[in-house]
Amino acid sequence: MNGKYLYFALSALLGVLTALVMFLPFLLLTIIYLYLLTKYKRFRGGQLLTVILLFTALFLAGEWTEIDHKSIITESDTKLIIEYTQDPKIDGDLLQVQAVEKQFQEKLLIRYQMKSEKEKEFLKNKSFFRCVCKVSGTMEKPAIAKNPNGFNYRSYLASKEIYWILEMNENPLQSCSPLKSSPIMLIKQLRFSGVRFLEEHFPPEIASLSAALIFGDRNMLDPELLGDYQKTGIVHLLAISGLHVSLLIGMVFYMGIRCGLTRQFMTNFLLVLLPVYVILTGGSSSVIRAALMIFLVLITIKWKRRLKLLPLDAISLALIVCLFITPLVIFDVGFQLSFSVSYAMILSAPHILTGYQGNGVRMLITSVTAQLAALPLLLYHYFEISMIGILANLLYIPLFSFVYLPGLYVLFFFQLLFRHTPQILIGLFLKIIHLFNYLIGILADFHLAHFIPGKPHLIILMIYLFLIFAVFYNWEAGVYSKKLFLLAAILFTVQPFWNWVNPYGEVTMIDVGQGDSILIHLPHGKGNYLIDTGGTISFAEEKWRKRSKPFEVGRDVVLPYLKGKGITQIDKLILTHGDMDHIGGALSILTELKVKQILMPSMTEPSTTELAIIKEARKQGIPVFKVSVGDQWKENKSEFFVLSPEKNFTGERNSGSIAFVARLGGVRWFFGGDLDQEGEEKIIKKYPHLTIDVLKAGHHGSKTSSSEIFIKHIKPKVALISAGENNRFGHPHQEVLDLLKETNSIIFRTDQQGAITYRFYHGKGTFSTYLP
Question: Are the C-beta atoms of 248 and 413 separated by less than 8 Å?
Fold first, then answer.
């Protein structure tokens, strides 16, 4: 059976996918898989029966998960008895912690906005474990994605079997009673105490890195630093993974042997230590996978005469166990990446790595192997990969393996045992951390190394998998000719090529909440125009209330949408006027994407935000044009003509919005920013024969825009309204909606329907909404 557990693991995986993803396609794939095993692997009798039984068992486990894991709690259940099950996460004045409702045994996410800095300090240093509490609050459904490529928080929590968020108004530890201790709770308490110990005794740079690498807690890491690690493709080093677990277990085993303990004793000790270590480090997918593999290998060492297990068998058994215990883990990105990369490393090691001499070359090949294995998943979930990550791994893997990990353990235990760590050691570590944090910032800003083809379609995803398999197959066979180079070239050009030849164009009103952002994408990649970027209005607040990475529309909504489309260049960034809800996200766009030119209204007094954008544009050498009535441009069959404002406009900011008409996809569009009624009426006086098919309603459907005279004059067939869900302004106003209905306009609203897209081909197109 050695080496054949892989085929059993694949059958288990197919069983879960058939139950939880798509029934018929994966069932057909399973039938084909069984045929291939019979024909080419000569599976007969017991082996084939085992494959079928595993498929059936995991299919039933997946089906049971679908049936069983639905919310029993209702929105009216506002008074509950809960038990906290995880460490609280505190960010600014927001506390979040997971809990289990005692009556129905259902998981909840508790959120509480702290009232004072004193209360924050109290809750930060208070253990939530072993507490059963009576709580009350408002039940809310997690947010859903309202744009293509957006983060679906509801699906993310549902994959963790959490269906409700309880918003509390009172201290979450106010009405609690102690619970009888259990070994698991004691270990979790130890983890909480360990993280607090690090925070109290070490500088933030050392404490945050130590918490991540020793206890698997990344909450203290600087969000910008974490972002730099993500951009360079080495964020996996900040999560406890197989590398860290193997190094730690190896160090413990070596130290035990050096202290005179027997190998048998150390093997038994590690078998007990591994489950404890999984809980102590937070139980992430990568830790569970690595610990299970090592656990199985240690068992084979202990029973070496009765059981033999190859690394491939160990990871396959680990996969089966993980899927059987929690089928929903299949949707966890960390689980997907951990197993796919580990399989690639194990399968390639005997055939590819052995063909290279020298540690440096082998590390390079290992890095390339890992990047190839992770590529489809990274593109599907994050829409981009960093090519510089291959080189960054060569530098940072040794740094973490031989400097950070052992050094931080030494500092931690030194402080724990002697209550004092020599300042020279802390100073040395701080210098090393500062140096490599600075370097990772430089590497992260190296945009030329970023490959952003967008989120692959299912067909493209299949092509990626086929090409990667072909690359590994030829590489393993020792083919280093043009064939291997050609396969690699196709791998990195197939999706950009499709983006280029795609004959469809689109106009999409992105849901940015209470703001505006519209993408015009011309066919064959002939032009990308972004009209406004949305923006988050921030208010001055006390330092203790500030979040480490506050929500920002440009970075968190618009950029993922654009990158998911494979858009890396904006040909015209059209900023209609200087209000924050229209241009607040522009700096994020300028930082992450290439912008060829910026259009702003011809105003005598730009806003503070506009001045900041102009300053950044000059820094990057991006031309800024002040447009006014009469300006125009043309791209193939698409035409754009500016109707407002007058040159050197001196009035109110909304009145000076850029308003222009466009002929796109066979229809005439009117984009007017927040142009008011007076500005609209000036336009129809100047252009009495103006007719419009699609109107972007001014000022989010406010009654200060979309005047009756204007609407009845242009007679729009379709009206698009961008407004925030349950916004405090009451947009869109009922008067505007009634007026549009009187003219038989079809109304689309982002607050109710999410992103709104008009997709066109050769002068004909259709509207669709992201939400039904």
Answer: no
Q: In this predicted model, what pLDDT tens digit does every residue of 663-707 receive, in sequence order?
A: 999 999 999 999 999 999 999 999 988 889 999 999 999 999 888
In CATH, the number for domain 502-538+547-769 is 3.60.15.10
| In the block, residue with structure tokens 């858009």 | 567
CB neighbours (10 Å) of residue 30?
21
Residues 308/2, Cβ–Cβ less than 8 Å: yes
Q: For residue 350, what pLDDT is reported?
A: 77
**Two tokens, residue 607:** 């806003």
The whole-angstrom separation of Cα 625 and Cα 627 is 6
Contact of 584 with 533, CB cutoff 8 Å:
yes
Task: Determine the Cα–Cα distance for residues 640 and 669; give it in Å rounded to an integer.
Answer: 9
Q: Which CATH number fits domain 79-180: 2.60.120, 3.40.10, 2.40.50, 2.10.260?
A: 2.40.50
As a whole number, mean pLDDT of residues 142-169 equals: 92
Judge whether residue 222 has pLDDT over 70.
Answer: yes
Residue pLDDT, tens place only, 503-546: 999 999 999 999 999 999 999 989 999 999 999 877 777 889 88
Q: What is the pLDDT of residues 367-389, one digit of tens each?
A: 888 888 999 999 999 999 888 88
Residue 728: CB partners within 8 Å, gap ≥ 6? none
| 81 close to 101: Cβ distance less than 8 angstroms | yes
What residue type is 746 in one-letter code? I
The domain limits of the chain are: 5-68, 79-180, 187-450, 459-500, 502-538+547-769
Sequence-distant (6+) residues with CB within 8 A of 262 are none
Distance CA(557)–CA(537), nearest Å, equals 15
